Automatic annotation (TrEMBL):
InterPro entries: A_deaminase_dom, Ado/ade_deaminase, Metal_Hydrolase
Phosphoprotein recorded as keyword: no
Keywords: Hydrolase, Metal-binding, Zinc
GO MF terms held by the record: adenosine deaminase activity; metal ion binding
GO CC term, one of those recorded: cytosol
The organism's taxonomic lineage, starting at the top: Bacteria, Pseudomonadati, Balneolota, Balneolia, Balneolales
Name the UniProt record assigns to this protein: adenosine deaminase
Length: 328
């Protein structure tokens, strides 16, 4: 099966963890390929999620100017074109990019404007998710969610919480997610990655997201699996990343197939293209090889993603038509 020919939807994709060697070379001309691999990518096995996340720091350091943010965003669209992605949602934490002269509003504006330009240039439909991080204060979390509201109607389509799930509680972020629900904003939330089903339950109960980033340890609790199915909560699954962060020992141990067979809505994503050194074509090859997925399973996972995408009904209808035609 030639996976590069298949059109795809990607919902879980971190901008600041998806810098190709080419764009890093533009921003840091003296870097070698070996240095890039050492500092920007992760080994096949990290100690834990926190160890994995630390690999994003060199990229974030580079992304502190308007020019850098623009180049990195353009670079990501080149990668998406190579993967034949039709629609994507790109996430990042704007507060991480204000160590230079940019304000948080300027950070969001430059990424938004560049995404808008790239949508026109490439034909790839795209939205932006703004992330708060687990270690942020309540004030920082509120700052971030208010940016989502401020940029409503632009390419910014929703809110997310990311970073070290095991290291920090949800308390600082409850107010921000209450704000999301009061204002009718879209949201997803990382959970069930570094921690077990109890973290997913807590996230669902306190944040009320329509999607969960990862959520792969949900299979450990049959009641949670049933709840996810009943409430049609979508899981943004990132297979390679989950093995690297040692959620699973090997890809064949991954829960994605069990969750899919249980009737859970889920999609296949890269998470962090640089850190995991992976493409979406690679991820499709992985689930096909490990679990015998055919175009039928891949079609269903893409249709699930479309159903839960933070976009309008007209775009969803167009995407469904394109995806279904290509897979059948």
């Amino acid at each position: 099966m030639n996976f590069s020919d298949l059109p795809k939807i990607e919902l879980h994709l971190h901008l600041d963890c998806s810098l190709s060697f080419g764009v890093v070379k533009k921003l840091r001309p003296k870097i070698t390929k070996a240095e890039y691999q050492e500092f920007f990518t992760a080994p096949a096995k990290c100690r834990d999620l926190a160890d994995y996340i630390r690999r994003s720091l060199p990229a974030i350091e580079l992304m502190q100017t308007e020019q850098a943010l623009k180049l990195v965003t353009e670079d990501l669209f080149e990668q998406l074109l190579a993967d034949n992605v039709l629609y994507t949602e790109i996430r990042f934490a704007p507060l991480e990019h204000t160590k230079g002269d940019l304000t948080i509003e300027e950070v969001v504006q430059v990424v938004n404007d560049t995404v808008e330009e790239q949508v026109e240039e490439t034909g790839i439909e795209a939205g932006i998710l703004l992330c708060t991080l687990r270690h942020y204060s309540e004030e920082q979390s509120m700052q971030t969610v208010k940016l989502v509201e401020q940029f409503k109607g632009s390419r910014v389509v929703g809110f997310d919480i990311a970073a070290d799930e095991a290291g920090y509680p949800v308390d600082n972020h409850i107010e921000a997610f209450e704000y999301v629900n009061q204002k009718g904003l879209n949201c997803t939330a990382h959970a069930g990655e570094a921690c077990g089903p109890e973290s997913v339950w807590e996230t669902l109960n306190k944040f009320s997201p329509s999607r969960i980033g990862h959520g792969v340890r949900s299979y450990e609790d049959p009641k949670l699996v049933e709840y996810l199915k009943k409430e049609n909560i979508h899981l943004e699954v990132c297979p390679t990343s989950n093995v690297q962060t040692d959620v699973f020992e090997a890809i064949t141990d991954h829960s994605v197939n069990k969750l899919f067979e249980a009737g859970i809505s889920l999609s296949i994503n890269t998470d962090t293209r640089t850190i995991s050194n992976v493409t979406l074509n690679d991820e499709y090859e992985t689930v096909a090889s490990a679990f015998g997925w055919t175009t039928e399973e891949l079609l269903q996972s893409n249709l699930h993603a479309i159903d839960h995408a933070f976009t309008d009904d007209g775009t969803k209808a167009s995407l469904r038509k394109q995806i279904t035609k290509a897979y059948r």
